[in-house]
Amino acid sequence: MRDGFRIIDxxxxxxxxxxLWRHYLASEFRDQAPCYADLQPGADGPPExxxxxxxxxxxxxxxxxxxxxxxxxxxxxxMASQAPQGHLDSMDRCGIDAAVLFPTYGSYLVSIDTMAADxxxxxxxxxxxxxxxxxxxxxxxxVGAGLIAxxxxxxxxxxxxxxxDFGWRTLVIRPNPVQGRTLGDAxxxxxxxxxxxxDLAVAVHEGTHALLPSSGAxxxxxxxxxxxxxxxxxxxxxxxxxxxxxxxARHPRLRVAFLEAGCSWLPYWLWRLDExxxxxxxxxxxxxLAMKPSAYFRRQCLVGIEPGEPMLAQVVPWIGAxxxxxxxxxxxxxHDEGIxxxxxxxxxxxxTGTVRxxxxxxxxxxxxxxx
Length: 371
Description:
globular
């Protein structure tokens, strides 16, 4: 308990040690385990993670340097986050009772558009097996979210079912198109149906510099530009895809969270979809949407919230107090342990019941955690 609140970190990240891939990959893929190589000799920044001699991230020279410069002062924290005890120590310092863990490098390894489907899904399986062992160090406090590669819809279903057998109730996917398929593509229908049938929540989580079609990547090379675009804009289009494609309408018990983009984009986006697109173009989606887009979102979706966002006292009631969740994004470069203090200070303007929902109750319900 912290200041009278139980705190659930609904978006926390592991830093995967490079050795895990060779250890956990199936034997037929082990020779394709990632390694580090200097692909830009003479340029500032550390070696890049590669698979089969090619980088796993889209990094210009300036972006590579920006990432390295931000990481260097946090190197001890990043190293500690490769082990369960590093997370538990940090959580204890912050007063965090439990955390849902998401990938860092694993997310990039399963998000290379040109990668063979079997290899992408092998990386997802290896990561999930490693994370299961990782979380076993503190059951109930460290909670896994199963990573899903989207290259082959049939293998998505198989891995989702396998992860559910771990006892996990959350999956994580990218918002971007993968091999030409957006989240609303009909090929994913069996996956969404399985998630609904098995009561699995789906967390949509972006990461800048993926080798996928990404907002901003067609016009910016700097991390400044790409990072500004990728998180909020990919979440806007992911939510649109699930709405416009009728996924939420066809699967009313499906639960979806949009993380690490803040919540301030959402009131405008849902207003736009309701009062412009649906109002004037409703006939085009009449067979897929019987309600306004905002009604589906409020019925089935959550959004991650940032402490410093403007006008939260007005934004949160509009979104709905049951539709928000807090995550630290720790140990990534734009957040640190102080985000908990920042949140508790910023949310004093919100009703106590709302703060309790965003810090704990909504995460417990969405992720199906023990109360």
